[in-house]
Design goal:
The complex is a heterodimer of chains A (about 110) and B (about 900). Chain A is of the alpha+beta class. Chain A is about 55% helix and about 20% strand. Classes of the chains: A alpha+beta (about 110), B alpha+beta (about 900). At the A-B interface, helix 2, helix 3 and strand 5 of A face helix 1, helix 2 and helix 4 of B.
Chain lengths: ~110, ~900
């Protein structure tokens, strides 16, 4: 593996989860798999830390949960984005992008000079 | 939106209360994830064991995540508060002694306030809100001019007012009277209200059982014998189920009970009221005179004003009614009449003139509340001290909490939570104790009214208002007693607290300072306690004095039987004969050494006042109108009455047997010395004459004059009277008194009561025996005697409480101080200090502080005395004996409370004390 895995920046896990849930209603295991696949395994996260994050999001009303049956036939808790969660996702995405752009321009400037 | 809300609510609900389910779900969720990880690892070729370990590593610390999840479940503020309370409860539980004493202290304070408040509620708050809600007024009539000479209304006048519906929405006529209720074998003399049909709708009450009067029953001379019973009366009969529909005998007439009033309803008055209501249609039969007769002024009027009218506004619009009422009067007496509306009196029955009792009631209740609030303040000072003492010993704990990052607010919050828990605990204890003492007081007053004429209508003690009040008391107390100490304890700087260990010795610590917070609180408390104790002493002394006064007659060994011949069908002549028979029979009975008759009994409700006119005396200062008259009490007696009751005969002679038994012969009277002086300006009046009717007095001839043959000193008739009343006595042979009291002298009065009743019934089965009671009970059960006694008990209780709390407070502070100074004392003893020196060390401060406290107390007592002297008739507001007595008792008690810890200090073992950390 040539690429090193990056530790998550503080506060980005929520955004990742919201993004992951934006298309589908998923349970915890699926979410962690999805993040691993999409990030091409470059982000490292202790999988257990998903759960406090999910509960925090649920508590804020950005996601809601329902018990259902997984593909493997086991009962699992499925999380789904709520309306306000979707708004939050948009806001967070914008915020992150402008932050990333700003960071990038600063770093580029240093490289140039 | 609503689904969002419901989701939010569901989550919160589960977060707070369904934690178990949430935990289970979280476990299942995490286990699912782990299982999937393990499965993946196995698929990658690991052994089961390896796969499991790898999965756990990958997953991370499950316990920590679980805890983080839990944090997100509960709202922060609730967590905080719940945590505070849990913490507070734990810390209270750990020190049960402290908690118990604190809860009882607060409970006592709350209990007296709850009882006092319930009295104020029943006596002032409830009636005045009711009167205000209903816009209730009393209506009075008098002559226009300087001397209004108020009187009751006639029925015709009542109708005029009732028709004035532009001003009054409901108008009711009320006439109070005393009647004999029940059958001859169980006759009782009780207050009865004759009321018009509107009476019950005026107060907007619904019958508890049955119904109230119909318009037909209320029509003048309808003569339909029905009654409505008061709830308290029904209760006193044992709440018979078949009471409605049964018949009740009142003054020789059978009445059918058609309804029972609601609990607590007594009409206009406070807590006491008539047993039975009779409809206006029965008035003629009941009062024995035609209700429609223009001279029949019998009615008090209560009315509700039309909505929007104030008393002042209504008063301005009474002109047309006054004119119509003036026009009713017979020609020749057309003096213009006036009508007055005013707030109803709640304390006096059947008054015909407007008078305000709001002042008396509110003064009584504000003094009562004031005293009981002081008890609460004393209790709170105590608690504050206990909290301070406890806080001081928790200094290290607090310092550690603050130094590891707890905010001061947070620590204060925990301490406040402790206070609030204690307040609830104390409030509960207080409510319980209050309930108990209220029941006790109620039982006592019930006993009183048992022998009186009224029924006591009482509301239940505990209701929403009272619980709210108790919560307020407790809450105020909490803030008072825990916030101060909480702020103070946490103010100490951290280093000081942590360094406490090494600085534990030394008298320089603030607790030992003379004016430290704890000591100051104790001094204030001693001061307040002295004021309370002094107030209590004043009441107790007034109560004792009322028992010691010279009655002017002897009460022991005498029995009084009340016979009311107006309840029989006998003619006047027959009645006189039967009274003589009774007298004769009673004097010959075994065990009875003498018998006399009298128309009234001292200390009984006396309604016998009538005008007396002097014949041919010099004019005196007591001049009234053109013909001089003096109102005096009137009693018809048989010969031997004065010696039998031990009433001193000052000059002249007693009535002879002939005067006492025959109507023939010259009219004679015995008067008391004060009446003699008022009539003639001297007490040398033997052989002079008086008149008892205005017509004879105007003629002035001695034809109908009554000769004065003796002068006596009248017995006292009331607890509060400074001078016995003026009174005239007539021989029972020369007048007709249907209602008489047979007085017999017997060694053991209560033992012969049954025998006497049997003998009287066997003499004549129709003998209307109402009650047979020892003469002493007339004094003991007199309402004023009882009120003073009750006040003495209640306020004595306050004083006792204050004393107890002061002792607990002083003891607490001193013994805490001794504990804190153990090392210092140990060193002193180790260096050769004698026990006496140690005691002196501690007592010196105690004595000085007690003196300061007493100084505060004396000035407070001065104000308390001033306030009380307005309320208590026979009180010397600067009663030195009471003040010094209270101060001495308080001083001894507090010094004792000081001395016990001081003694303990001398027992300090220097070795142990020095080794003490």
């Amino acid at each position: 593996m040539t690429q090193t895995r990056k530790e998550l920046l503080q506060g980005t896990l929520d955004l990742l989860i919201l993004k992951t849930l934006s298309t589908d209603s998923l349970h915890g295991w699926d979410i962690s798999k999805r993040i691993a696949v999409v990030s091409k395994d470059r982000l490292t996260l202790k999988q257990g830390s998903l759960y406090p994050a999910l509960h925090r999001l649920e508590n804020r009303g950005w996601v809601e949960a329902e018990w259902g049956v997984s593909e493997a036939g086991r009962s699992a808790k499925f999380y789904r984005l709520t309306k306000s969660g979707r708004k939050q996702l948009e806001a967070e995405t914008k915020h992150w992008q402008s932050f990333a752009t700003a960071m990038a321009s600063v770093l580029n400037m240093e490289e140039v000079s | 939106m609503s689904s969002k809300l419901s989701r939010w609510l569901r989550l919160r609900w589960r977060g707070l209360f369904r934690r178990g389910a949430q935990e289970t779900e979280l476990d299942a969720e995490m286990r699912h994830h782990l299982d999937m990880l393990v499965g993946e690892n196995i698929a990658a070729g690991m052994s089961r064991g390896e796969a499991r370990l790898a999965a756990l590593r990958e997953f991370g610390g499950a316990d920590q995540y679980r805890e983080e999840c839990r944090d997100s479940w509960r709202p922060a503020i609730v967590t905080g508060l719940l945590g505070d309370f849990r913490h507070a409860a734990k810390s209270l539980w750990r020190s049960p002694g402290f908690t118990l004493v604190a809860a009882i202290t607060l409970g006592l304070g709350v209990a007296v306030n709850a009882v006092m408040f319930s009295v104020v509620r029943d006596v002032v708050l409830r009636p005045s809100t009711r009167d205000a809600d209903l816009n209730l007024v009393s209506v009075f009539t008098g002559r226009k001019g300087a001397n209004p000479d108020y009187r009751s209304f006639t029925h015709a006048e009542f109708e005029i007012i009732r028709e004035s519906s532009d001003l009054f929405s409901t108008v009711a006529a009320i006439h109070y009277d005393v009647a004999a209720v029940g059958l001859p074998d169980n006759l009782r003399r009780r207050y009865v209200g004759v009321v018009s049909e509107e009476f019950f709708s005026l107060f907007d009450v619904k019958p508890f059982r049955g119904r109230f009067f119909s318009p037909d029953e209320s029509k003048p001379n309808a003569a339909i014998p029905v009654i409505v019973a008061g709830n308290a009366y029904w209760e006193s009969l044992g709440k018979p189920d078949d009471f409605v529909g049964s018949t009740l005998r009142i003054n020789q007439r059978e009445y059918t009970v058609i309804g029972i009033g609601p609990p607590g309803f007594v009409g206009l008055h406070v807590s006491i009221g008539p047993d039975v209501w009779i409809p206006l249609g029965e008035a003629t039969q009941f009062m024995g005179r035609d209700v429609l007769d223009p001279s029949s002024t019998a009615w008090n009027i209560a009315a509700s004003l039309q909505p929007g009218y104030s008393i002042e506004a209504a008063q301005g619009r009474l002109g047309p009614i006054e004119e119509r009422i003036t026009a009713l009067a017979p020609p020749g007496d057309q003096s213009p009449r006036m009508i007055v509306v005013s707030t109803p009196s709640r304390t006096s029955f059947g008054n015909t003139a407007p008078q305000s009792d709001a002042g008396v009631l509110s003064m009584f209740s504000s003094i009562g509340m004031g005293l009981s609030m002081t008890v609460l303040v004393v209790a709170c000072l105590n608690l504050a001290n206990m909290f301070l003492a406890r806080g001081a010993s928790r200094q290290r704990e607090m310092a550690i909490r603050l130094s590891i990052g707890a905010s001061r607010w947070h620590v204060v919050r925990v301490l406040l939570a402790e206070g609030l828990l204690l307040a609830l605990l104390g409030g509960a204890v207080g409510l319980f104790m209050g309930y108990w003492s209220n029941e006790y007081l109620f039982a006592i007053s019930h006993e009183t009214f048992e022998s009186g004429l009224f029924s006591l209508g009482v509301y239940s003690f505990i209701d929403g208002t009272l619980i709210a009040a108790v919560l307020v008391f407790s809450f105020v107390a909490t803030v008072a007693f825990s916030l101060g100490p909480a702020l103070r304890i946490t103010k100490r700087n951290v280093i000081h607290g942590l360094g406490q260990q090494s600085r534990k010795h030394g008298s320089t610590t603030s607790d030992a300072r003379f004016f430290s917070l704890g000591n100051s609180l104790v001094m204030v408390q001693v001061g307040l306690s002295l004021a309370l104790l002094f107030s209590a002493a004043l009441f107790v002394r007034a109560s004792a004095r009322s028992g010691e006064i010279d009655f002017g007659f002897e009460t022991g060994g005498r029995l009084v039987a009340n016979l009311d011949y107006s309840l029989t069908e006998y003619s006047d002549q027959e009645i006189k004969q039967r009274q003589q028979d009774v007298l004769e029979r009673a004097s010959t009975l075994p065990g009875i050494s003498g018998a006399v008759l009298a128309s009234s009994v001292p200390y009984n409700f006396d309604l016998s006042f009538r005008p007396i006119y002097p014949a041919g005396g010099e004019p005196t200062a007591a001049q009234d109108r053109e013909i001089q008259k003096i109102f005096a009490g009137y009693t018809a007696v048989s010969s031997g009455y004065f010696s039998s009751l031990g009433i001193p005969l000052l000059s002249g002679r007693d009535f002879s047997h002939a005067e006492s038994s025959q109507s023939a012969g010259p009219a004679v009277a015995v008067i008391d010395d004060s009446l003699a002086r008022d009539l003639f300006g001297t007490d040398q009046v033997l052989g002079r004459h008086v008149f008892n009717d205005e017509a004879s007095a105007q003629r002035g001839t001695l034809e109908h004059a009554i000769e004065i043959i003796g002068i006596v000193r009248s017995p006292r008739n009331e607890t509060f009277e400074n001078n016995p009343p003026r009174r005239i006595y007539r021989p029972i042979g020369q007048v007709t008194e249907k209602n008489i009291h047979l007085h017999v002298n017997a060694g053991e009065p209560s033992a012969i009561a049954d025998m006497l009743r049997r003998e009287l019934q066997s003499l004549d089965p129709e003998t209307p025996v109402l009650t047979i009671r020892p003469l002493a009970t007339f004094v003991e059960k007199n309402i004023n005697t009882l009120l003073v006694k009750l006040a003495g008990m209640v306020f004595g209780g306050f004083g006792g409480l204050a004393l107890f709390l002061a002792v607990v407070g002083v003891y607490g502070v001193k013994s805490h101080m001794v504990t804190r100074r153990t090392q210092e004392i140990g060193i002193r003893i180790a260096l050769g200090g004698r026990p006496r020196d140690v005691i002196r060390l501690i007592m010196k401060q105690g004595i000085l502080q007690t003196c300061v406290g007493l100084g505060i107390g004396v000035s407070l007592s001065f104000f308390a005395g001033q306030a009380l002297s307005g309320m208590l008739y026979k009180i010397d507001s600067s009663d030195a004996f009471a003040l010094i007595g209270s101060a001495v008792i308080l001083a001894i008690a507090t010094l004792l409370a000081c001395w016990i810890p001081a003694r303990r200090a001398t027992k300090v073992d220097p070795m142990v004390a020095l080794r003490n950390d």
